[in-house]
Design goal:
10 helices; kinase; GHMP_kinase_N_dom; transferase; Homoserine kinase; alpha+beta; Ribosomal Protein S5, domain 2; threonine biosynthesis; binds L-homoserine; binds adenosine-5'-triphosphate; 293 residues; Alpha-Beta Plaits
Length: 293
């Protein structure tokens, strides 16, 4: 069995803990029952000995597998990881979603994507990464009574993501500690109105509106100050024609949405200006979680 889940870019400027979209960079896991437990990792994390044992995937998988089957069974897992860890591209969401989906598949139980999403909320309390990880596309999401309610918009092929990935990791829980404890009414209204406009622009495909709409007063500045080159990344992105350019999740990656025709030029400019950072041009992903039986 093979399960794969895409990387995600959350917040998208003002939509803190609310908006996110999926990009075509996937973590894939293959597994089958085995006499002995084993983990093999290829790609991101392959040199990290901590991931060879009871990592986040394994603990969530075991929790769900034993809840569903009441059995103890060893599995051989092979992970093919493309999503860099703690860089704001939803690596934890991908792991959480794939572990829950894998446990259900291993137990022979078919569940809806919505059910998997609601289980994922137990491990990540904000829905902005887990929703596009499961559903694909652009999503606005909220939580009511421990359930995720969301709306999805397919993203067209003529748009691409240019992601600039610094070497520096930014752990999400640590990165949340630098945020203000409260916001003024003025700033709350600012983010509310800009989030509403961002959502409307995505659904109406008014891409030229995004630069204005995707401005934020809640989290980006405080986080970007911990890696000030990110201010220059955003400036170069906009000077080069990006339609929107925002801190991806809690950072450190910077996400730009661009027209396909501009993507190579913008990526090359980023590579020239920021030679120490990784730069990728990615398609958007409209599939989310994929289960291959
Ligand atoms: N491939 C993986 N295998 C096992 N655990 C992983 C893997 N990828 C990420 N994790 C776990 O998720 C943690 C990273 O989560 P964190 O929320 O800090 O980053 P992120 O999800 O990449 O960023 P963001 O939520 O801002 O998009 C890692 O420390 C590790 O515990
Ligand atoms: N909304 C989350 C995304 C990162 O997981 C945050 O900004 O902390």
């Amino acid at each position: 069995m093979t399960i794969s889940v895409p990387a995600t870019s959350a917040n998208l400027g003002p939509g803190f803990d609310t908006l996110g979209l999926a990009v075509d960079l996937r973590n894939r896991v293959e597994f089958h029952p085995s006499k002995f437990f084993s983990v093999s990792i290829k790609g991101e994390g392959e040199n990290n000995p901590r991931l060879k044992g009871n990592n986040l995937f394994i603990s969530i998988f075991n929790e769900h597998y034993s809840r569903l089957t009441k059995n103890k069974q060893n599995f051989k897992f092979t992970f093919y990881n493309q999503i860099p860890m703690s860089r704001g591209l939803g690596s934890s969401s991908a792991v959480i979603v794939s572990a829950i989906a894998s446990a259900h598949e291993a137990a022979g139980i078919r569940v809806s994507k919505r059910r998997i999403l609601n289980h994922a909320l137990v491990y990540e309390s904000h829905p902005d990464n887990i929703t596009p990880a499961v559903m694909g596309g652009f999503n606005a999401a909220t939580i009511e009574k421990n359930k995720v309610f969301s709306q999805k918009k397919h993203l067209p092929d003529y748009l691409k993501a240019v992601v600039v990935i610094p070497n520096k990791q930014m752990n999400t829980s640590k990165s949340r500690t630098v945020l203000p404890k409260s916001y003024s009414k003025e700033n709350a209204v600012y983010n509310l109105s800009h989030t509403a406009l961002t959502v409307a622009a995505f659904f109406n495909e008014d891409w030229e509106m995004l630069k204005l709409a995707a401005q934020d007063r809640f989290h980006q500045k405080a986080r970007m100050k911990t890696l000030p080159e990110l201010f220059s990344v955003q400036k170069v992105a906009y000077e080069s024609g990006a339609l929107m350019s925002t801190l991806s999740g809690s950072g450190s990656t910077f996400f730009s949405l661009v027209y396909d025709d501009d993507s190579a030029m913008i990526a090359n400019r980023m590579k020239q200006k920021f030679p120490d950072f990784g730069v990728k041009v990615l398609d958007f992903d409209n599939d989310g979680l994929i289960i291959e039986r």
